[in-house]
Amino acid sequence: xxxxxxxxxxxxxxxxxxxxxxxxxxxxxxxxxxxxxxxxxxxxxxxxxxxxxxxxxxxxxxxxxxxxxxxxxxxxxxxxxxxxxxxxxxxxxxxxxxxxxxxxxxxxxxxxxxxxxxxxxxxxxxxxxxxxxxxxxxxxxxxxxxxxxxxxxxxxxxxxxxxxxxxxxxxxxxxxxxxxxxxxxxxxxxxxxxxxxxxxxxxxxxxxxxxxxxxxxxxxxxxxxxxxxxxxxxxxxxxxxxxxxxxxxxxxxxxxxxxxx
Length: 261
Known about the structure:
By secondary structure, the protein is α/β, with parallel strands linked by helices.
């Protein structure tokens, strides 16, 4: 542990951490990202934590938490920590973590249940899909290259720790990646307004994947053409469709319900 407290925002460590928080390009180049809060730091794999930073006030009342994590840490003045944090009310602890590496094979283990995400742009939606996906027993998430960055601080917070446990892959050749899934005898269902059957009419006990599109524009025609079955979530009133994260949750938990019975 460093004994000297960081008291300046011009400190090189502080500058680098702020860049990690704000710039996806810096995160990708260095293969590092930031997690905030006691829960997220505790759940981060120990061998992936590069460095922990705690605020001056945090260390005074949370020494046992720091001891439990068992990693070296830097103490930062409260004022500087607030500049490093991405939240309005910082908990007083954050960590730089190495990025996780997964392959397509990691998504298809056991009896696969995969979310295939195309062009999703809202960080909270993606984080919620990762979190609820873990709850529903998802085997992994495939994303198009221009889907929002999963290491965006808002996405990470929305995962509530699931980012460390749910395999995920970004693919530049998204359509080819879908073909890989199909070639592994995984049935692909597209949530689509043109779906003829309700999602409850299909069986997801076998290897299954759900195609989920952009919040505003839905799925592209070319990805819809890759689906084996178009399904719909019936709506009452004048509602056309659900929020992408909610729709994904509905589909994944139907699959879980069927698999549990």
